[in-house]
Amino acid sequence: MKVIAVETYGGPEVLHPVELPDPHPGPGQVRIRVRAAAVAPVDAMLRTGLLADMNAGRTPPFVPGMEVAGAVDEVGDDIDPALAVEVGEKVVGFVDNLGTHGGYSDYVVLPAASVTRIPEGASAPEAASFINNSLTALNALDALKLPAGATLLVTGAAGSVGGYLTQLAHHAGLRVITIAGPGDDDLVRTFGANEVVHRGPHAAADALALIPGGVDAVADAALLGDDIVDVIRDGGQLATFRPYHGEPGRGIRVHGLNVRQRATDHAAITRLRDLVNEGVLTMRVGPVLPAADATEAHRLLDAGGVRGRIILEFPIP
């Protein structure tokens, strides 16, 4: 099979096709013939070497990609009947990528627990667009355990993770304050934002003006770190998605989160699919490119400002 991989770290130009042996499923696993894979910031982190420690001791190539959509074409032995999917079933899968195992591949083998049927009527690009970010958002809300009516500030609310945080928090009955760009008010309100604060040097002060005592928690999708902790009330919480080394004090609890810990949480993955079917979560597709144009996809990712998930279509010619 062909994959899109890196053999040296660097800019988008280091991505290129590589031929690897076809993988086959072992016990409890399924093989997916990939039709679409999402392009995410974590893929750029792998490409540039920011995740080099993850692959320490492994020999390149390294394959990015943490979410795919396609069809099951091989099934291993000893699949839990509760997880069983048939050959030919259209599915979406979360990929805990490592080394040569990644979503930018013609085929990928996954634990059956990491796979669920695609949302009703979804195309492959649509199906590949939601699982990683929505699972990241759900992981944060599960860690925060906020009761209905609590106040949550979401930074980067117009982005992929921030958008799903806003939608899930609204669905859970939270009061959602969002920070987003000046042109994104209507978008984040469709996600369920109760209040919108514009990003910039006065964002924290503007948020405190809305909630003078401070919010119960911040989900920091925009990685604002110390610039946003003053908005949290004493004894509140901060959910972070990359390492945060600050010490907010005032009894604030910091949750450092990694979505990979939910890679085989089949109940959560399927619940998110069901929320798409119910219209609670949206599938946000941006540019769709052939897998052979992965370099251009990463240039778009690095440039920023894309609304919706950049998608690569497979197979690789």
From TrEMBL:
Domain Enoyl reductase (ER): residue ranges: 10-312
InterPro entries linked to this entry: ADH-like_N (IPR013154), ER (IPR020843), GroES-like_sf (IPR011032), Lipid_raft_assoc_Zn_ADH (IPR052585), NAD(P)-bd_dom_sf (IPR036291)
Database matches in CDD domains: MDR_like_2 (cd05289)
Pfam families referenced in this protein's UniProt entry, alphabetically: ADH_N, ADH_zinc_N_2
SMART domains registered for this protein in UniProt: PKS_ER
Entry superkingdom: Bacteria
Protein name: NADP-dependent oxidoreductase
Organism annotation: Streptomyces luomodiensis
Lineage, highest ranks first: Bacteria, Bacillati, Actinomycetota, Actinomycetes, Kitasatosporales
